[in-house]
Amino acid sequence: MANNTNSANKPVDFKKKHSKEEMKQQVITFALMIMFTLVAFGLVLAEVTSFFVIPILIILAIVQVLFQLYYFMHMKNKGHSMVSVMMFGGISIGILTIITFTTIIWW
Amino acid sequence: MSTALAQKRGLGAAIWDYLTTVDHKKIAQLYLVSGGIFFLIGGLEAMLIRIQLMQPNSDFISAGLYNEMITMHGTTMIFLAAMPLIFALMNAVVPLQIGARDVAFPFLNSLGFWLFLAGGLILNCSWFLGGAPDAGWTAYAPLSATSPGHGVDYYVIGLQISGAGTLIGGINFLVTIVNMRAPGMSYMRMPLFTWASFVTSNLILFAFPALTVGLFLLMFDRMFGSAFFDVGLGGNAIIWEHLFWIFGHPEVYILILPVFGAFSDIFSTFSTKRLFGYSAMVFATVLIGFLGFMVWAHHMFTTGLGPVANSIFAVSTMAIAVPTGIKIFNWLFTMWGGKIRMTSAMLWSIAFIPTFTIGGMTGVMLAAAAADYQYHDTYFVVAHFHYVIVGGVVFGFFAALHYWWPKMFGKVLNEKLGKLAFWPFFIGFHLTFFIQHFLGLMGMPRRYWTYQEGQGLDLGNLISTVGAFLMAIGTLIFVYNVIYTAMKEKKVSGDPWDGRTLEWSIPSPPPFYNFKQTPLVRGLDPLWIEKQDGKTGMTPAEPLGDIHMPNGSFLPFLMSLGLFIAGFGFIYQVDHKGWLALVFIGMGITLGSMLTRSLKDDLGYHVHKEELEEGGGNHES
Amino acid sequence: MKGWMGKFRMLFLFGALSLILSGCGVDNISALKPEGYGSELLFDLMLISIAIMLFVFVIVMAIYTFVIIRYRQKKGQEDYIPKQTEGNKALEIIWTVIPIILLLVLAVPTVQATFDLADNSGSEEEGAINIEVTGNQYWWHFNYKGQEISTSQDLYIPKDKRVHLTMKSTDVIHSFWVPSIAGKMDTNPGDNQNTMSLEAYEEGEYLGQCAELCGPSHSLMDFRVIAVSQEEFDQWVEDMKNVDPEAQPESDVAREGQELFNNNCMSCHAIGSAPAGVGPNMTNFANRSKIAGILDPTKENLVDWIVHPDEIKPGNQMPSNLVNEDEAEKIAEYLLQLDHTDVTPESAEQN
Amino acid sequence: MSHDDVLNPKEMPHEPEKATHEGQNKFLGFWFFLGGETVLFASLFGTYLALNESNAQDPTRSEMFGLELVFIMTMLLLTSSLTSVYAMYHMKNNDFKKMQTWLAITVFLGLGFLGFEIYEFTHYIHEYEFTFQSSAMGSAFYTLVGFHGGHVLFGLLWITSLMLRNAKRGLNLYNAPKFYVASLYWHFIDVVWVFIFTVVYLMGKVG
Lengths: 107, 621, 351, 207
Ligand code: HEA
Ligand code: HEA
Ligand code: CUA
Ligand SMILES: [Cu+2]
Fold this sequence. Notes:
The complex is a heterotetramer.
Chain B: H1 2-6, H2 11-20, H3 24-52, H4 63-97, H5 106-125, H6 143-146, H7 151-179, H8 192-224, H9 238-270, H10 278-291, H11 307-319, H12 321-335, H13 344-367, H14 369-375, H15 379-409, H16 415-441, H17 458-488, H18 526-532, E1 547-549, H19 555-572, H20 580-599, E2 605-607, H21 609-613
Antiparallel strand pairs in B: 1-2
Chain C: H1 6-10, H2 12-21, H3 37-70, H4 89-118, E1 129-136, E2 139-144, E3 149-152, E4 154-158, E5 163-169, E6 174-177, E7 184-187, E8 194-198, E9 204-210, E10 223-228, H5 230-241, H6 252-264, H7 299-307, H8 309-312, H9 325-335, H10 345-349
Parallel strand pairs in C: 1-5, 4-10
Antiparallel strand pairs in C: 1-2, 2-3, 5-8, 6-7, 6-9, 9-10
Helix pairs in contact in C: 3-4, 6-9, 7-9
Chain D: H1 3-7, H2 21-51, H3 61-64, H4 67-92, H5 96-128, H6 136-166, H7 176-206
Helix pairs in contact in D: 2-6, 2-7, 4-5, 4-7, 5-6, 6-7
One heme-A binds at residues 40-41, 43-44, 46-47, 49-50, 70-71, 73-74, 77-78, 81-82, 136-138, 382, 386, 389-390, 393-394, 432, 446-448, 468, 471-472, 475-476 of chain B.
C-alpha cells in the first residue's frame, strides 16, 4: 500500500487557502464556545436568581450548539440543505417532546 | 462472495443466496414472504379473538390467554405484518421508480430485514416459552412494567430489535431517494409512491427513536430495577403513554402513506390519466406527515391532560382531515373523465375510497376530545382503526400486490381468482367492523375478554364474527391465487398494464442491475411521455458502460443472529445470572461481525460492458 | 333540553338521527341513551359530528358513484386516450376550504364541551358531594369525603345533583366509565389524580365498567352507580354513618360466620367507614346488586366466590381456599345479612 | 471509478469524504441518523426533566451535583471537538500523519472525559447512595447521562479502530468518508453534552 500522505497536490492551493480560512473561523468559534461555557458556569456559581439565569443558560447552550452545527460540522457550507431540513425536523420534534414532558406529565 | 456460489444450482445454494443477498428485489421478496406469514398468524389470532367473542360469557379461551391474543394480534399486525409489507413494496418499487440500479446502502438494507425478522421471531417465541405479552400492543405502564412472567420482556426485546431494523431501513430509503435519482428525475417528477415512501421514511426516522427510548425505560424497569414507572419511588406512568404515542401516532401514518402512494399510481394507471392535482397530492402527503407529529395526545384524552391540552390536540387532529380530503377528491377526479379498467388492483382501490372515508370520518369524530370520553377504549375505536387499517392499509396491500406482482415475479396474478378473493373479504370486512361502531356506543369496552348477557351485545358480536370468517375465506383465496399463479400462469411482458412510470420500462422481473443504461427522465410519468412520442422505451442518459454492483454478505444475518441470541440472554438473566452468558455470546457475534465489516475493504464488483451486450450479466438468474 | 345545545337539537336531521341511534342498546348501559349531564352533552356533540360526517359522506359517494359508472371503459374504447388534465385550481380550493369550515363548525362545540366537562368549580361549594374513586385490580372503592363513608362496588348518588369525583388508582391504570350518565376518566397511580363529575337525571341503577386494560379480569371489573332521590340519599348517608361494624347478627350460623370472617378476612376487608383496604369494604353487603361486580347475589354464588375467587375473576388479589366450603357457607350467611339501610338498588327503580 | 482509483487515488480531491457516490450516501445517511438521534436524546431529556424532582429519599440535585468536575469534563470534551476539527482539516489537506495525530489527541481527551464520568458516578453511588434504582430521578439521571457516556465510549472505539485499521493504508477515497462521519459523530456527542451540562448540572444546581 502506497502512502498517500504527501502525494503532490499542486492544483489545490486555492482550496488550501480556503481551508485555512475556515480553520481560522473554527478556532474563533472554539474560543467563543469556551467563553460561553465560562459565563454559564460563572452565572451559576455567582448564584444569580434562578428566574433570571435559566433562560440565559438555555440561550447560551443553544448558541453553542448552533456553533457546533454550523462551524464544526459545516452545516453552513454548500450541499447541506437536505441536512438542515432533517436536523431542524429532528430538533422541532425534540422541542415538542420536551415541552410536553415539562408541561403535561404532571398536572 | 454470493455471486460465485449462487452459480451453483440447488436448494442449498438458493438458500445461501437469499441469506447473503443485498439485492433490493430479493430483499423485497424476503419482506413479502415473512410479512405475509406474520399476517396469516395475526389473522389467526384475530379469528381466535372473534370466536371467543361470538357469544356472551364464553370461555373458548381463558382471560389471560385472551389478553395475550389481542396483544400479539395488534403487535404482530402492526410491526410484523404491515411494516415489512410496506418495506416489501418500497424495496420492490422505489429504486425502479427513480431509475436507480440499487438502494443507497444495500448492506444495511439486508441488515434491516434480518433485524426485523430476528425481532419478530423473538416476539413469537414467547408463545412457546411461558406466555406471550399481555398488556396490549400499547403496553401501558405500570401494567406492562409489573406484568408477571416474561411475556412483556419478549415484547420489549422483540420490538427493540425489529425497531432498529426499521430505522435502518428508513434511513436507507431517505438517502436512496435523495441521492440516487436518475438524471431528470427531479423531486416534482417523482411518482407518488416514491414521494410517500420518502415521507414515510422521514416519519420512521423521527418517530422510532421515541419508541426506542420508551422500550429502554420499560426494559430497565423490568430487568434492571429502575423506577421510571414505579410511583412508589417517584416514577410516572404517563411518561410511557406519551413516548408510546409520540411514536404511535406517526406510526399509523407510516402505515397509510405508502399505500396512499400506491393508490395514486394505480388510479392513474388504470384510469389512463395523469394524476389529478399532482403538486397538491405531494403537498398533502408532506402535510399529513408533518401534522402527524402534533396530534399524538388524541390517544390520551381520558388520561387527564386537562381541557387546554385536550382542546389543542383535538383541533390539530381535525386539521389532518383537510390534506386527507384533498387526496380523496384528487383520486376521484383522477378517475373523472378517464377510462377506468376494472382490474383486481383497481377493484381493491375502488373499494378503498368509501371504506377509508368512513374510517377517516370516525377518526374525526374521535378527535372531538369531549366526545372521546364516550368513545375511548370502546369498540367504536376498534371499528375506527380497522376501517382505516384494513380498509386502507390491507386493501392497499392487496391492490399494490396485484399491481406490482408482474414486476416482482414476472406473472400477473390470476384476475378471476383476484376478484373471487375480493368479494368475501370486502363483504366480510364491513360485516365485521361496521357493527362494532354500534357495539362500542352501546357500552362495550375494547379488550374485553367476554361480555355479560342482557347488555344487548350478543347479536352484534355474532355478526361481527361471521364477517371475520368471510375475511378469512377471502385471504385464503388470495393465498391460493399466489400459488396458482406461480404454477399455472404464463410470463408476461415488462409492461402488462400500459404503465406510466419507470419501473414498467424494464423487463419483468428486472435484471439484478435494474437498468442496463440509466434512463433520462423528461417529465412526470416518464414512460408515458416516451410512449406518447411513439417510442417504446426510455432514452438512456448514458452510454453503455460497466455497472458497479455491491457484494453479497452473510454478515447482516450474523449480526441479527447475535442479537437474537443476546435477546434471550437479556430476558432470562432476570431469573438467573448464568443467562448473561448468552448476552455475551450474542453481542460477541454481533460486534465481531461489525468489526469484520469495518476492517474489510468491500468495494463490490463490476458487471462489464461486454457481458451486458451479450444480453445481460448472467451472474444470477 | 338543558344547556346551550338545546337549539341545535331542534334542527332538522337531529331529531331523526337521535331517534335512530337511541334505538340501539339497553337502557342504563348505552351511551346512545343518555340519562345524565355528561352523556347528554356528549350525545349532542356526537350528533353534530355525525351530521357533518354524513354530509361529507354523501358528497363523496355522489361523485364516486357517478365516476365509476360513467367512466368505466366501454366496449370499443380500448384505444381511446383520455385528456390528461393536470388539475383544477378552483376545484382544489373548494375542497380545501369547505372541509376547513366544516371542521371549524365541529371544533367550536368540541372545545366548549371539553371545557364544560372539565369545570369542577362546583366541588368547592357548600354542600357539594365529593367522592374519591379508587380503582383497584379489579374492584372500585368510593370514599365520600368529609362524610366518613366508604363503600365498594356500588356508588350511591342523589339524582339531579352534580357529584364531584377525584380519581386515583392503587395499582395499574383503570378507567371509570358509566356510559349512560357520563363519559370516562382514567384513574392513574401516584399523584396524577383526575377529576370528573356525575349527574343523573333519572333514578336508576347504571352500569359502570372499567375501560382501560388492567389485567386478565379487566372485563369483569363492573360496578354500579345507583341514583336515588335526594331524600333517599340523605337517608342512606344517615344510615351509612351509623353502621356498627361489630353488630351481632341474630342467627347462630351468622354469628359463627362473623367470627370466621373476623379471623380470616378482616386483614383485607372492612365493615364500616374504615379507610380503603386491600379488598372491598363490605358495608351494606346484603344490598349489593352483584357480588364482585358480576355475580348475582345468591348464596351459592357467594360461597363459590369465597372459596374460588380465582376461578371467577382470574388474577384477582383475593386468595382462594382461605376457608372451606362449610365455613364459607357460614360467612356467606353473615355477609348476606349485612343490611345497613333501607335504601337499596330497588329504591332507585321505584319511579 | 475503478477500485484502484478509490483505494489509491492519484490525486486527492478537496473534499475526499464526498468524492465517491458511496461517500455521498454515507455522508447524508449519517446526518439523517443524527436527526434521529436528536429525537432520541430529546426523549431522554424530556424524561429527565419530568422526573428530576422525583428524587424520593435521595438528596436533591443541588445538594448532590458538584460543578468542578463537570467543568473539567466540559473543557475536555469541548477541546476534543476542536482537535477533531483539526484532524478533518488535515484530512482535507491530505496530510494523513497529522490527521492521525490529532485523532489520537481527540481519543485521549475523550478517555479523560470518560474516566471522570465514571469517577463521578461512583462518587454519587458511594457518597449519597444515589443509584439507578434508588429513585425515579436516579433512573432518569443515569439513563440520560449514561446514554451519553455510552455514545462517548462507542465513539472512542470507533475512532480508534479506524485509526488502527488505516494506519498502514493511509488516506483514500474509501476510508475518508468513514473518518469524516466519525468526526461528525464526535461533534454530535459534544452537542449533547452542552445540553447535559446546561440542563442537568447547571440548571440542577440553580434548582
Ligand atoms: C392507518 C392507520 C390510521 C389512520 C390513517 C388514522 C387516521 C385518523 N385517526 Fe386513527 N387510529 C388508528 C389508526 C389510524 N388512524 C389506530 C390503530 C388507533 C388506535 C390505537 C389504539 O388505541 O390501539 C387510532 C385511534 C385514533 C384516535 C384515538 C381514539 C381513542 O383511543 O380514544 C383518534 C382520536 O382522535 C383518531 C383519529 C384519527 C383521525 C382524525 C384520522 C385522520 O387522519 C383521518 C382523516 C381522513 C378523513 C377525515 C377522511 C377523508 C376526508 C374527507 C373526505 C374530507 C372532508 C372531511 C371532513 C370535513 C371531516 N384515531
Ligand atoms: C395492521 C393491523 C391490523 C389488521 C390487519 C387487523 C385485522 C383484523 N383484526 Fe385487529 N387489531 C389491530 C390491528 C389489526 N387488526 C390492533 C392494533 C388491535 C388492538 C390490539 C390491542 O388492543 O392491543 C386490534 C384489535 C382487534 C380486536 C379487538 C380486540 C379487543 O379489543 O378485545 C378485534 C376484534 O374483533 C380485531 C379483529 C380483527 C379481524 C377480524 C381482522 C381481520 O381483518 C383479519 C383478516 C385475516 C385473516 C382472517 C387471516 C386468514 C387466514 C387464516 C385464518 C389462515 C391461517 C393459517 C395459517 C396461520 C397457516 N382486532
Ligand atoms: Cu380496571 Cu380494566
Ligand atoms: Cu392517532
